[in-house]
Amino acid sequence: MAARIDLNLAHAYHANPKLDSDYALLPLKMSFRAGGAYALLGPSGCGKTTMLNIMSGLVRPSQGHVLFDGVDVTDKSPQARNIAQVFQFPVIYDTMTVAENLAFPLRNRRMPETDIRKRVGQIAEMLELNGQLNQRASGLTADAKQKISLGRGLVRPDVSAILFDEPLTVIDPHLKWQLRRKLKQVHQELKLTLIYVTHDQVEALTFAEEVVVMTRGKAVQIGSAEDLFEKPAHTFVGHFIGSPGMNFLAGALDDQSLLVGERRIGLNDQQAQSLQGLANIKLGIRPEYVHVEAQASFNSIPAQVERLQDLGTSMLMTMRCAGHVLRARLPLTAQHFTVGSSVHVSLLGKHTCFYHNEELVV
Amino acid sequence: MSHLQLSEVSKSVGADVHLHPMSFALQPHAVTVLLGATQAGKTSVLRLMAGLDVPSSGDVIVDGLNVTGVPVRKRHVAMVYQQFINYPSLTVFDNIASPLKLRQETHIEEKVQDLAKRLHIDPFLKRFPSELSGGQQQRVALARALAKNAPLIFLDEPLVNLDYKLREELREELAQLFAMGQSTVVYATTDPGEALLLGGYTAVLKEGRLLQYGPTLEVFRRPASLDVALAFSDPPLNVVSAQSKDGNWQLNHGPFVALPQLKAMHSQVTLAIRPASLRVEEKSGDMVISGQVQLAEISGTDTFVHFHCALGEWVMQKTGVHFFELGARLTFYFDPSESYVFSTDGALLSAPFSQAGWGA
Questions:
Q1: How far does the CA of residue B134 sit from the closest CA of chain A (Å)?
Q2: What angle is formed at CA B133 by the lines to CA B129 and CA B137, rounded to 5 degrees?
Q3: Strands B184-189, B152-156: pairing kind
Q4: B222 to chain A: nearest residue by CA?
Q5: Exposure string for B190-211, b = 16+ CB within 10 A, e = fewer
Q6: DSSP letters spanning B3-35
Q7: Which of A128, A143, A166, A181 has the highest number of chain B CBs within 10 A, making it the mutation to test binding with B?
Q8: Minimal Cβ distance to B299: which of A201, A240, A313
């Protein structure tokens, strides 16, 4: 049955790691709830695949433990862990029919034939493969083959978890959303523990209930898509999620306000109190939340328009503001602003975040 | 050396027609995006322009001279491919310097340093390409292409093999380099968003045919045909047929809508509505559609809500991250004046009139 997975470990591919950079995964403690849908998201080399391989048992962590439902499985093989895996490229038997491919993991486990037929039918219907059940796999397109791989991963009702390693890489872009939808539906219906590795933010944010954002061997935030967008716990998350990502302006606290370059932004009591005594502060605001006006208003600061890009359905304005580059995403009506002109921006609102040493304070 | 023109150029390989005859002149000192799905003919056009292939018929004209059949090494062009192609046995410095040495230029050291700085690879000049990440390797290939100082630069989906964040960064830098206007640049991509970010001019290709060429925003806002509009929309456009009935238009045998923007007489038309024109908030005069949510895709900046309704499988684009339950029944709205209208043979009849004053 779906298992809860606890990790308390670190991993280095070479002996005697000393520096942070010697670790593929820095020491971490993390729990994946039974029946949850998780994505491990980050750029190449961030450690997400290492983490997946440690959960599957393909890699043994150089220190610490992996627990499935409280039982230590650190030394157990992938088979003994009772997990299913789906890889980037289809892993199926070309000589078998679609139905035989789907039934294979169940026959291996000696499930009664009547139950097999029922389960295969159910999975085939979910993935819209029921029209092709008696077809040989060899003649199918790459998309259809990968769907069979997904089906083989999902078919066993008794697995602890299903691990996916960038499973939609070979799928044609315009079919991707349909498979994402299938995976989400499957998760809602079957309530399995699903863990999904990807470098694609759309894939991660769409699929998962919780996304683990990773960089340089470290998980910097675990949260819902909304958490990652609205309250990035780390400047890396603010930068990585969203296109363009969050704007950051370095500043220093001065009484009740933040000094950014020569500009002063008044803070509310809560913000000022939380930042008291901290050096190295950054104000973070997403381009979607930057207010740009022609006239100065309360607490606004001046900026110069350096670039204005019409993106068809919205405008992207790039400004220079208190010595920083600042981007704003604006409605098409912002067309009347001109490059080189002076504008006034308001950076303080309920979506504004403050960071100290790259970590969220308030 | 920066004016390039194709005149009735076509390309066939055996019985396969790769390109149907097409004519167009590239806007000099600007970026032209070749936009189209895979197999649309983008790479074929690039190769003909660069002189890597010879057309089956028609002429390639550079600065008024017919260069059809002149091989690539006798033309002053630079090319960047999807794969990161560098000299594996040369350092990054020597990779970038190679075209300069070939032309026996002076001040090579300075020029390489300058290019490396502009592409943020100056710390790696002594390394070999294999010691760099994919993004850095592609930067080296770009630096070498720029070092040629060629009046014509061709890029074939240069960012497709990079992580999206790197893609975003490098696209931004390229857009700024191209904006200096030293070269005429041709940039092939399948991504409509990339075309909009690069700006400049866009040529839309489909199945080996040139459908439209013009300033990128003009092509986006006034697509000559439904095919152009479909090629230039991601997420896909919402498309529905409409029949004329008693002065109004009936959508897909269902609801009626008024289309005062439509002047000509037609009994049947096709409406296309951009996902960004759909809303879950109502405004007066809106068309109302009830739908069932199939999936909310979240890009990090936008949420794309796929839903099923009486008009078909539609998509709404909403800025920000929003949660929509699978299977939820919701009401969607759009302003009918924001629809593109096409005749039954696909020609544009009217484009939306936006507040800022574009369109019909």
A1: 10
A2: 45
A3: parallel
A4: A312
A5: bbbebbbbbbbbbbbbbebbbb
A6: -EEEEEEEEEETTEEEEEEEEEEPPTTSEEEEE
A7: A181
A8: A201
Q: CB B236 to CB A43 under 8 A?
A: no
**A239 in Cβ contact with A246 (< 8 Å):** yes
User: Quick one: pLDDT at residue A215?
Assistant: 94
Considering only CB atoms, A312 lies closest to which of B220, B298, B299, namely: B220
Q: At what angle do helices A173-190 and A113-126 cross, to 10 degrees?
A: 130
pLDDT at B118: 85
**Out of A45, A205, A333, closest to residue B298 by CB:** A205
* Residue B359 predicted with pLDDT over 60: no
Size of interface A-B (CB pairs under 8 A): 96
How many Å separate Cα B143 from the centre of its chain?
Answer: 23
Q: How confident is the model at residue A157 (pLDDT cuts 50, 70, 90)?
A: confident
B127-167 residue pLDDT tens: 999 988 888 899 999 999 999 989 999 999 999 878 888 88
Assigned CATH class of B4-223: alpha beta
Mean pLDDT value across residues B272-295: 94
Polymer length of chain B: 360
A87 burial level (CB within 10 Å; 0-12, 13-18, 19+)? middle
DSSP output for A110-136: T--HHHHHHHHHHHHHHTT-GGGTTSB
Per-residue pLDDT at B357: 41
Q: What is the mean pLDDT of chain A?
A: 92
Q: What is the pLDDT of residues A60-79, one digit of tens each?
A: 999 999 999 999 999 999 98
- Containing B175, the helix (H) or strand (E) segment is helix B164-179
- Average pLDDT of span A111-134: 92
Inter-chain residue contact B317 with A225, CB threshold 8 Å: no
Domain ranges in chain B are 4-223, 238-350
Put simply, the answer to whether B297 touches A202 (Cβ < 8 Å) is yes
Interval B327-353: pLDDT, tens = 999 999 999 999 999 999 999 999 986
Tell me whether residues B306 and A184 touch, CB distance under 8 A: no
CATH topology of domain B238-350: OB fold (Dihydrolipoamide Acetyltransferase, E2P) (2.40.50)
Contact A44 B163 (CB under 8 A): yes
Residues of A in Cβ contact (< 8 Å) with B293: none
Mean pLDDT of the A329-334 span: 90
Mean pLDDT computed over A196-209? 92
Distance CA B155, CA A78 (A): 44
pLDDT value, residue B358: 41
Q: What would the two tokens of residue B295 be?
A: 């999936």
How confident is the model at residue B264, as a pLDDT?
64
Shortest distance between the Cα of A232 and any Cα of chain B, in A, equals: 12
Inter-helix orientation angle B108-118/B134-147, to 10°? 130
Q: Domains in chain A, ordered, with CATH? A: 5-238 (3.40.50.300), 243-360 (2.40.50.140)
| Residue B148, both tokens | 């040629």
Exposed / middle / buried, residue B180 (Cβ in 10 Å: 0-12, 13-18, 19+): exposed
Total length of chain A: 362
Percent of the residues in chain A that have a pLDDT greater than 90, as a whole number = 74
